[in-house]
Specification:
Helix content is 0%, strand content 49%. It has 319 residues and is an all-beta fold. The chain has one domain: Beta-galactosidase, Chain A, domain 5. The strands form six sheets. Strands 1-9-10-11-12-26-22-21-15 form a nine-stranded antiparallel sheet, with no helix packed on it. It has a seven-stranded antiparallel sheet with strand order 6-14-24-23-20-16-17, with no helix packed on it. It is globular and about 55 Å long.
């Protein structure tokens, strides 16, 4: 790995690769992992709009809404009280809006750092790609630090949107039998905070649906659900893509990230005219809610200068 003399924001994309798998990172656009390509097949949600500048206040649906972003310190926009006064957190947090600095890089690994602007928080992410007997292993090592002089509340959620098509299958541990509903377009599954059975869930209008089976974009479905807190044995989730012959398996630490959010979107978002997502976003998270303002046993605060680290692994395997 090559150490840079000082951190810099590359003007060009950073690509790491191993065998027939490559990962493209866009430092200027929030450290976005824009592409995970396997044997020439793209795994991530394609941009809904051309890449462009981001402001500190624009809603997420005005962006390209693609690829893999990091949500810190909140997913939902909200105002939180801190020792230094109220802080406004914008939609999907700060970090997808700001350039990221490259600390170190090699052909198979890259470390970036980025500073939040709503709260004094720094995120470091090291992304490492290796080839295995089964396929490829993408490891993301995270560290968040309070760079301020007072305690700071925070939450983090991974936001990797994987392209999905009808017939793809979401797989969770057998012990996960129910989830909390955070959003359902037109109330298809019920109302916010309703309990939803997994994978076979009741529809509010009658009948049932298999939430584990991806649907065609013509269905115009958009739903967000949460599972957790998860047990130590419930440390994985997966998306199987039969047409590509691939399984995308997430492994994470329920101690560090005890909740799993899932965004299931099959042509149902964004609400504005134009292209819609067709994706499954598997979201290991520190929190049970998308809003940092929603407090509870899951809430976290960092003391001045304090850091916390955690890993997340994505295994891409042939099936």
């Amino acid at each position: 790995m090559t150490e840079m003399s000082e951190m810099a924001i590359p003007k060009e994309n950073v690509v790491i690769h191993s065998g027939d798998c490559s990962i493209t990172i866009l430092p200027q656009l929030g450290g976005k992992i824009a592409s995970i390509s396997v044997r020439g097949q793209e795994l991530l949600q394609a941009p809904l709009a051309p890449y462009g500048p981001r402001t500190h206040t624009m809603p997420f649906d005005e962006s390209d809404a693609s690829g893999w972003d990091e949500c810190l310190p909140s997913v939902d926009p909200c105002t939180v009280d801190t020792v230094s006064g109220p802080a406004f957190i914008p939609d999907h947090g700060d970090l997808w809006r700001v350039p990221w600095e490259l600390a170190t890089s090699s052909s198979m690994c890259a470390t970036f750092r980025a500073q939040c602007f709503s709260l004094p928080l720094e995120l470091q992410r090291t992304t490492t790609l290796t080839q295995t007997e089964e396929g490829w292993r993408l490891r993301a090592d995270y560290k968040v630090t309070n760079t301020g002089s007072t305690p700071v509340p925070w939450s983090w959620t991974a936001h990797p949107s994987f392209a999905a098509e009808a017939g793809d299958r979401i797989v969770l541990p057998d012990s996960v039998r129910e989830m909390r509903l955070a959003y359902s377009r037109e109330g298809r599954l019920g109302q916010t905070n309703d309990e939803v059975q997994w994978p076979i869930a009741a529809l509010s209008g009658g009948g049932q649906t298999d939430l584990g089976l991806a649907q065609a974009p013509e269905k115009a479905i958009a739903e967000k659900l949460f599972a957790g807190p998860l047990a130590l044995c419930e440390d994985w989730c997966a998306l199987e893509r039969p047409r590509l012959g691939l399984r995308i398996r997430f492994r994470f630490s329920p101690t560090a990230t005890p909740f799993l959010g899932m965004w299931l979107c099959y042509g149902g978002w964004p609400a504005r005219p134009g292209s819609k997502q067709a994706c499954v976003t598997l979201e290991p998270s520190t929190t049970a809610f998308d809003s940092l303002a929603q407090t509870g046993p899951w809430s976290r605060v960092l003391a001045p200068g304090q850091s916390v680290s955690w890993p997340m692994i994505v295994e891409i395997e042939s099936i």
